[in-house]
UniProtKB/TrEMBL annotation:
This is Carbon-nitrogen hydrolase. Residues 6-267 form the CN hydrolase domain. One of its GO terms (molecular function) is N-carbamoylputrescine amidase activity. The lineage of its organism: Bacteria, Pseudomonadati, Pseudomonadota, Gammaproteobacteria, Alteromonadales. The keyword Oxidoreductase does not apply. The keyword GTP-binding does not apply.
Length: 297
């Protein structure tokens, strides 16, 4: 049964190299810190095991991928069980020979995998060449049932799509989670950087508002140099946050600090807010057929 009160947290960290053992240990230390404070549900950032390898198209990077179950799920499952927490992790999944996904894996106070989600929307932009590495998810938008409620887990580029958030909420998600790796091109002006961040912040708070559910966003921080000559690399902008069901920001991290966030959510507020702002009642589902089209000509 879903609790009335839930202490929920996230981990914001930098990544210096592809040493998985070091990166896992850093994540584990932050997880334990949160668990000791009574946190019951914790989110890690996107692809937290390694550097963000998608800055270039490199076939050698496929060696970083792992099967599920595998070393990463064994490691984090043991942590979830030992500290009696719900844990949302992210990894580069090797599903089969030549078939890879960007996958979130959830543990529910156990070594056993409670559920997983494969990233559905895959970007292909300068510095973010994800289509080279990841096959789009084929599991749909299904919340994962846990002891703290139904978790609507999405991944990074998914966060820009209201359809994804809506479908998770329609399936009963109590909270939306976005493990993320997003940052600035260092060639962009400060004004452009601020506009990009504000758009990112606004769209996710809007998902909270439109669906009357809390949103938890864990982004990485720090600078990661590009392996491509004369490429400026990515300055990940951090600023992970937790928002309530009316989009109110309950906690937010800084741009460059490795940190944790934790808030106590009143899980009954979602129902209260939905009674006052009945978006689901007033949806004109009889008039939305064209939403499944690519474009209206």
């Amino acid at each position: 049964m879903r609790p009335d009160k839930l202490k929920i947290g996230l981990v914001q960290q930098s990544v210096a190299d592809n040493n998985k053992a070091v990166n896992w240990k850093k994540s584990a230390q932050a997880i334990v810190e949160l668990a000791k404070q009574g946190c019951e549900c914790i989110l890690l950032q996107e692809l937290h095991s390694t550097l963000y390898f998608c800055q270039q198209e490199d076939t050698d990077a496929f060696d970083l991928a792992e099967p599920i179950p595998g070393p990463a799920t064994d490691y984090f499952g043991e942590i979830a069980e030992r500290h009696n927490i719900v844990l949302v992790t992210s990894l580069f999944e090797k599903r089969g020979s030549g078939l890879y996904h960007n996958t979130a894996v959830v543990f529910d106070r156990s070594k056993d995998i409670a559920g997983k989600y494969r990233k559905m929307h895959i970007p292909d932009d300068p510095g973010f060449y994800e289509k080279f590495y990841f096959t789009p998810g084929d599991m749909g938008f299904e919340p994962i049932q846990t002891s703290v409620g139904k978790l609507g887990v999405l991944v990074c580029w998914d966060q820009w799509y209201p359809e994804a958030a809506r479908l998770m909420a329609m399936a009963g998600a109590d909270i939306l989670f976005y493990p993320t790796a997003i940052g600035w091109d260092k060639n962009d002006t400060p004004d452009e950087q601020q506009r990009q961040h504000d758009a990112w912040h606004t769209i996710q708070r809007a998902h909270a508002v439109a669906n009357s559910v809390p949103v938890v966003v864990a982004n990485r921080t720090g600078f990661e140099a590009s392996p491509v000559a004369n490429d400026p690399g990515i300055q990940f902008w951090g600023q992970s946050f937790i928002a309530g069901p009316q989009g109110e920001v309950l906690a937010q991290a800084g741009k460059e600090e490795e940190t944790t966030l934790m808030v106590e959510l009143d899980m009954n507020r979602t129902e209260q807010v939905k009674r006052i702002w009945p978006y689901f009642r007033d949806r004109r589902i009889d008039a939305y057929d064209d939403l499944v089209k690519r474009w209206r000509d």
